[in-house]
Amino acid sequence: MNRERKPGEAPTWEAEQALTLLCEALDLSNDAAIFFAVCESEATCQQRMREVRQHLEAQGREVLEMELSPKQPDLATQIGGRTDTTPPLRVGFVVMRGLEEAGMEFPFLPEDAPLRRRAEEASRVLRTLNLERERLRERGWPLVFWLNRSTLGQVIQQAADLFAARSGIFYLDELPPLTEIKGMVTLEITGRERGHLRGLPSEELKRRAGLYENRLQRERTAEKPNLPGIALLCQELAAIYSALGERERASTFQQQATDLYRGLAHSSPQAFLPALAASLNNLGAMLSDLGRREEALRATEEAVAHYRDLAAANPPAFLPDLAMSLNNLGAMLSALGRREEALAAYEEAVRTLLPFFRAYPQAFRDWMQTMRDNYLRACRALGREPDGELVESLRKLLGKM
Amino acid sequence: MSVSIFNKASGLREAYTLFDPLRPLEGEDLRRFYAERPEEASIDPLVEELLLESREDDKTIFTGLRGSGKTTELARLEEKFSDTHTVIRFDVEKLLNLGDLDYADLLVSVGLQVFRHAQAMKDRPDEKKWEALLFWYETHILEEDERRRFQSEVGAELNMAIASVSLSLSTASPRRQTVRAQAQANLADLIKRLNDLLEDIRHKSGRPILVIVDGLDKVYNLKQACDLFLHGANALLAPRCRVIYTVPFALYHNNDFQQVRLSFSRWFILPNIKVWERDGSLCQEGREALQEVLNRRMEAALISPEARERLIEFSGGVLKELVSLTRSALMRARRRGDQGPIQVDDVEYAARQVRNAYRGLLTEEHYRELWRIHQGGRFFQTPIVQELIHNLSLLEYNGGDVWWAVHPIVRPLVEEWGNESGKKAG
After folding, report:
1. What is the 3-state secondary structure (H, E, C) of chain A?
2. How far is A256 from A310, CA to CA, in rounded Å?
3. Which pLDDT does position B105 carry in this prediction?
4. Pairing mode of beta strands B59-64, A90-96
């Protein structure tokens, strides 16, 4: 693959360089070797796989694609079942799916809770993979593991020997720095939730955290646990730990709250669907904060879907929430390089919030400013002209303030 | 076992082949590429102890950080003792299911390896002893076609039969449970027959027998590993020969394991090679040893002196990390031609890829603990510390004085976190 930069040509992206290096490394590998190809989105992954495959096939090499996931947990069997031809010419592509939750622990959930089962299953898949390292080596193929950043993190912990034996890690997508995404999302999501905590000294926050955790413990072990109460406590603890900067712990509590609200909304949607949507929204922001972008996107997409349903039934009550959620969705899509979809989400967010901003400018000013900025940034990223009428009316309204 | 075709790489393409993190040094490669470890990180104390030991059935626990060179050192140990002992070394990672390992599985496997060795001996052991062990396998473990192969005089046939039994112990087949149940119920009988054969081999060869069980350090479930040694201690101590068992490094630090440790004759931690001293000054001896690892495998002209220093620094003294980083860096350097040389930028690039991977792993709790230790805080055996040691973001240096340091590739992340937290607190 000739990807040398020509004189005068714009600098190549780091991802382009990584792609070239991966191809060259595979060219050098006629024996077993382990590579990690990191792509955040499935679409980018497929695109990059196509490019590497074309490169290899042009060299006369055969590519065998396999999946490693809770549904397809046994890689050695998949490789072992292949018809044997000329081993040095082969390269294995292993697409890793559904393994991001491997490191998560949910001791508070019942053993058969789907989330807990999923996490345990994902851990088992990675640990088994670790033990198959020797057998994979004996096959003599270079293996490229296609995975996202969260899964790679779990590989370090759960398949540590495999990671230690790697020949290279290649980041094949372009992502804005984490700090940029955080800035875009945090204001919209956690501002409202954390409002009552703002300005509290950290000692007070810690005191409250201790208090609530004790209460949570009591509630959980009660003969008849008060599930809405437990969900609320989890939500509150997530907000406190988020305010304390303990992001991992915050997201764990937020996840617990979400799981509980999901169960509650299932049996009583009218009462708990709004809480579930809000919880998913916060969870998305927290996961994004932790760099777990695919999971963050999934949570936010679900929040948007719920807010759409809620807004269809009661527009004044839920359209602002839908707008906020759409804005977050735009940020997450943008972080994953899905810029067209991001622009559409931002634009919808602005248009949804606009009537409320007109009616209550003071209340929605901060939100609207952020959404407008995100919308303009997304237009610039795609080289598009923003909607002139929309921008002008926003300029006038914001200018008055 | 594949052997490298090059003596020393004169170009980066050749160097790529020689810096292979999947392949420990063994056989001919060991002679060509092995670089002596610094005295305080070597296995010499263990060798001396083993030589001084008067018993011929002592049991040793052997451990060390992931990637510190354990398999290579065990291969050296095999060579060192091959003149005075009958050495049987094998890797359970290839033979057993480490996700669900039981002491009975392990003993069945040891028995198979001893049987195989006895079959290959020029001066065969007493046929009765040999057949007595075979009879145990025939009665309790083997299926019909395996029985025929076990009785074959052809080595390849026997190897196939052993592979077949091993496979049944390694896969999640119903047969594994049957084999295990049979082995557990008849373990005392297996041990007796195994010991009779071991004694006869000892008698015929005139040498003590040393069995080296590599790969047990890969057992990831610490409770399972602890149970293996706790509940199976009597069985694991029973073979009448010298045995070296590897164990997971984190298990060694586990409180429950301390009791188990006492049952064994000795334990040995392969010390990580130091690249700096505890007070932060450079450890010249360690750096020279790591430099020799690079020099043995590639011409000095292929890497700039600054890049070499940086590679050594980033490795933290972990040999596999050094090999892996070198491979990554040289791939980038090759873009400038096969003679490179590898420059500091290439090494920084390789390290950055690894650092970014750790970003996806480390949690708030990890950072807090790493920062505390980085600031000189005391070391406590907590589950979170065990996780950090397991994922190598925390390295232990235990040649003489024992101390801990954040992995040099991870250190900037921890410092970034510490500074941010400091700002928030301030």
Report:
1. CCCCCCCCCCCCCHHHHHHHHHHHHHHHCCCCEEEEEECCCHHHHHHHHHHHHHHHHHCCCEEEEEEECCCCCCHHHHHHCCCCCCHHHEEEEEEECCCHHHHCCCCCCCCCCHHHHHHHHHHHHHHHHHHCHHHHHHHCCEEEEEECHHHHHHHHHHCHHHHHCCCEEEECCCCCCHHHHHHHHHHHHHHHHHHHHCCCCHHHHHHHHHHHHHHHHHHHHCCCCCHHHHHHHHHHHHHHHHHCCCHHHHHHHHHHHHHHHHHHHHHCHHHHHHHHHHHHHHHHHHHHHCCCHHHHHHHHHHHHHHHHHHHHHCHHHHHHHHHHHHHHHHHHHHHCCCHHHHHHHHHHHHHHHHHHHHHCHHHHHHHHHHHHHHHHHHHHHHCCCCCHHHHHHHHHHHHCC
2. 22
3. 87
4. unpaired
CB B182 within 8 A of CB B140: yes
> What is the structure's pLDDT at A83?
46
* Angstrom distance (rounded) from CA A199 to CA A208: 14
Per-position DSSP letters for B155-177, written without gaps between them: HHHHHHHHHHHHHHHHS--HHHH
Per the CB < 8 A criterion, the answer to whether B342 and B307 are in contact is yes
Distance CA B93, CA B95 (A): 6
Judge: B359–A158 Cβ closer than 8 Å, yes or no.
no
Instruction: Give me the count of residues in chain B.
Output: 426
Which one of A135, A151, A156 would you mutate to disrupt binding with B, by most B Cβ within 10 Å of its Cβ?
Answer: A156
Structure tokens at B100: 């669900």
Task: Tally Cβ neighbours within 10 Å of residue A225.
Answer: 13
Burial class (CB in 10 A: 0-12, 13-18, 19+), A82: middle
Rounded Cα gap, residues A333 and A319, in angstroms: 21
- Between positions 302 and 331 of B, the ones with CB within 8 A of A are 320-321, 324, 327-328, 331
Query: What is the predicted pLDDT for the residue at B87?
Result: 95
Other beta carbons within 10 Å of B331: 24
- Could you tell me which residue, A107 or B169, shows the higher pLDDT? B169
- Interface list for A 231-270 with B (CB within 8 A): 245-249
**Average pLDDT score, chain B:** 87
Question: In whole angstroms, what is the distance from residue B75 CA to residue B200 CA?
Answer: 25
The torsion of the CA quartet A301, A304, A308, A314, rounded to 10 degrees, works out to: 150
Question: Is A266's pLDDT higher than 90?
Answer: no
Check residue A183 and give its pLDDT: 40
Name the one residue in this structure whose structure tokens are 């919209």: A188
Half-sphere exposure of B363 (CA within 13 A, CB side): 20
Residues contacting B72, CB < 8 A, separation 6+: B24, B25, B26, B30, B34, B319
Residue among A84, A85, A158, A90 nearest A128 (CA): A158
Name A95's bridge partners.
A67, A146
DSSP-assigned beta bridge partners for residue A37: A146, A170
Region B25-43: mean pLDDT is: 90
User: Which chain B residues have a beta carbon less than 8 Å from that of A158?
Assistant: 220
* Distance between CA atoms of residues A331 and A329, nearest Å: 5
Q: A-contacting residues of B 244-303, CB under 8 Å?
A: none
The structure's pTM equals 0.73
B218 in reach of chain A (CB within 8 A): yes
Instruction: Give the type of residue at A22.
Output: L
A74 with A47: CB under 8 angstroms? no
pLDDT at A260: 92
The burial class, CB within 10 Å (0-12 / 13-18 / 19+), for B157 is middle
Cβ atoms A249, A241 nearer than 8 A: yes
Q: Residues in chain A, how many?
A: 401
Distance between CA atoms of residues A209 and A222, nearest Å: 20
- Mean pLDDT of the region B22-37: 89
